[in-house]
Amino acid sequence: MNDFAEQIDSAKQIITALGLPKAQQNERSALCLLALLRMTPESTWQDAGSPLIGITPIMSWALQHYKKEYAPNTRETIRRQSMHQFCDAGIALYNPDKPDRPVNSPKAVYQIEPNTLAVIKTFGTDQWSDTLNGFLSQRDTLVSQYAKEREQDLIPVRTSDGLELKLTPGIHSELIRQIIEEFAPRFAPNSLLIYAGDTGAKFGFFDEKQLSDLGVEVDSHGKMPDVILHFVEKNWLLLVESVTSHGPVDGKRHKELSDLFSGSTAGIVYVTAFPDRSFMGRYLSEIAWETEVWVADAPSHLIHFNGIRFLGPYED
Fold it and tell me: At what angle do helices 3-17 and 27-36 cross, to 10 degrees?
């Protein structure tokens, strides 16, 4: 057995011993663990480190040190089917340097959990069995502890009927919160929240029946806006895009949403939300006509890109 295979096999043994499910007892997860520990084929387990490392650097580590090449489109597989489970099991930490970093940030990083690192450093020694057993007896406590910490980082949002949503931390989710709590009461009072996307899940909140009752059937792959509100009084559906990393409702996005909601029995209003006016300035030339713009740092104002419909003086 060469050094590559031996080190990968040992990593698989550790993953199994730590109680990870069978779906993670494979080469992909083993390479993730080795990258988390900064382990080359020549390293001993006592040499294991705890760098901050992202998904792309994990893939680069696998190629550089273990000659395993992953295609760029496997990033999500590594994140969702290896690293996600490591974090859920409490053996890896997500963004320990900046817990409020957005989930979809390219700067997202992972780090081996300190107690797990101490156990792994004893692999292959006489202390391994006792250290592992001691760790496993406390593992549920550790998982609960980190789950509680993650829960504390979530951004709470209350809907009109008192339901509390929890969104993953970050500027994108913060803007979604402001749309629901600041924009909606001002410009669509007593509206019903139908959908609120979250960067940590495909559907943060989705009243699928309510949308279906309005004539819109969306499959799970539909490219939803970030927030959907039903302004019941006027029977309007407000489709709101929260712009922090992706673009506004431009011509292309307008057509996508128009097609997606073509069956709606409610009138469609397209809204782009920005955190502030300086952010809006970056996209000003892209915003589609016949849409609205709301800026969170001036929450009582709405900017209309609606041509002659609003041409005329304001009354005092």
Answer: 90
pLDDT tens-place string over residues 236-277: 999 999 887 678 999 999 999 999 999 999 999 999 999 988
Q: What's the predicted TM-score (pTM) here?
A: 0.52
Q: What is the DSSP letter of 314?
A: P
What residue spans define the domains of the chain?
Answer: 3-153, 155-310
Tokens of 185: 């009461």
Integer Cα distance of 40 and 3 in angstroms? 9
CA torsion through residues 10, 11, 17, 22, sign:
negative
User: How many angstroms separate the Cα of 84 from the Cα of each of 62, 80, 215?
Assistant: 18, 5, 36
Task: Transcribe 33-64 into DSSP letters.
Answer: HHHHTT--TT--GGG-----B-HHHHHHHHHH
User: 3-153, superfamily in CATH?
Assistant: BsuBI/PstI restriction endonuclease, N-terminal domain (1.10.10.1820)
What number does CATH give the domain 155-310?
Answer: 3.40.1350.80
pLDDT tens digits along 104-131? 678 899 999 999 999 999 999 999 999 9
